[in-house]
Amino acid sequence: MLDASELVKRFGPVRALDGFDLVVSAGEVCGLVGHNGAGKTTFARIACGLDRPDSGRVLVAGAEAGGWAAQSRIGWAPQEPALYPTATARENLRLFGGLAGLRRARLRTEIAEVAAAMGLEGLLDRPVGHLSGGQQRRVQTATALLHRPPVLLLDEPTVGADPETRQALLAVVRARALEGAAVCYTTHYLPELIELDATLAVVSGGRVIARGTRQELLTGLPGRAVLTFDGPAPGGGGAEALVIASALPAEAAAEVLATLGPDARRLRGVDITQPTLDDLYRHIASGELDRAA
Ligand SMILES: Nc1ncnc2c1ncn2[C@@H]1O[C@H](COP(=O)(O)OP(=O)(O)OP(=O)(O)O)[C@@H](O)[C@H]1O
Question: Does CATH place domain 2-217 in 3.90.1150.10?
Answer without folding.
Answer: no
